[in-house]
Design goal:
Elements: E1 2-11, E2 21-30, E3 33-39, E4 51-62, E5 64-66, H1 78-85, H2 90-95, H3 100-109, H4 112-128, E6 131-137, H5 144-160, E7 164-172, H6 183-199, E8 205-210, H7 217-229, E9 235-238, H8 246-252, E10 257-260, H9 266-275, E11 278-281, H10 283-288, H11 297-302, E12 307-309, H12 323-334, H13 338-344, H14 347-352, E13 369-372, H15 379-382, E14 389-394, E15 397-398
Parallel strand pairs: 1-4, 5-6, 6-7, 7-8, 8-9, 9-10, 10-11, 11-12
Antiparallel strand pairs: 1-2, 2-3, 4-13, 13-14, 14-15
The structure holds 3-[(4S)-2,5-dioxoimidazolidin-4-yl]propanoic acid and fe (iii) ion (FE).
Amino acid sequence: MKTIWRNATLATLADDRGWGLLERGALVCERDQIVWIGADTQLPEGLNAAEEHDLAGALLTPGLVDCHTHLVYAGDRAEEFELRLEGASYEEIARRGGGIASTVAATRAAGDRQLHALALNRARALLMQGVTTLEVKSGYGLSAEHEARCLRIARRLGRELPLTVKTSCLAAHALPPEFAGRADDYIDAVCSWLPALAAEGLVDAVDAFCENIGFTTEQTRRVFETARQLGLPVKLHAEQLSDQHGAAMASQFCALSCDHLEYLGSDGIAAMAKTGTVAVLLPAAFYFLREKTLPPVQALRDAAVPIALATDHNPGSAPLLAPLLVLNMACTLFRMTPEEALRGMTLNGARALGLGDRGRLAVGQRADFVAWETGHPRDLCYWIGRDPVKQVISGGEKVE
Ligand code: DI6
Ligand code: FE
């Protein structure tokens, strides 16, 4: 069954550079694939399409790929946000049971239905804003049982909503209270949980938080060795608050991506360039934590490291469900060009998830795209708080 989408300005991102603009363009889909793309006037005859949609001059881009989110959690940290503005330090808040630990406690205490409903609402909000591929991390369960529960919920989202969900196991996110003072024992435990989680099909990639306040490079390496034995790809929260040389270590495991990277040094950049590891930048966390050190965008460009962008949605450092705002922040805060920003949340976001079948409008690509009520793709990075989505199309079908 073929479907025609016509009378649109296509931003294909099909070439290495440029928007790949095609005015008065059209595309033809068969099931969940793009099978033809070109000028509206050149649509092949006798297509015998089941449906034809006139997009009335809308802009058409690839569906957005949000390649880094922590979507499954209960509770929020608004009180902590307020306390900090009233002068409380991060340590004081942690001593009162705040920080990641409070989200872990709230997540463990939440019922299955509630935890699922919360995540489903968040995923739906992203979908309605153009996200057709979504990565979801665990990392607020921090026990075999609770990590599995969070990953099962993430999987369910992909079955219940018309979007693709890729899961990452981030059990090595923080030290749970029952392992206080025993980080190495906790890493042993994480390594022992991974085979069963993988066998249940819950893990598309393994992630870790390599940081002063997270896990050391050596502890992270042990988690990655287990991932490698299981044939699972890895990604890493690296160099967010300090340079731990995590990106260089992760590159030894041919990591799909290294994420955050404000403190990334030249060793990490060279290593990532060699292995084709994607740099995932997260301007919302940079903004919310009021970071001062910028990620080395120009050095990443110079080394031809692909740059992706994501929301990093989480209750502690990025409580936002606004993908286009992230594009704007990447331009204003990181001085990325609008084209780099959109490529970052489409093509390069897909690469960060190991997906080569999406992120561009081209024959053979998955039929995930968004029709926007605007004339030029740079507009998506420019307006703040406007909702230009006209229609989301996922796997060749309209999202209602
Ligand atoms: N880096 C972050 O910014 C989030 N996790 C991480 O590894 C913060 C998570 C939180 O504060 O709940
Ligand atoms: Fe994160």
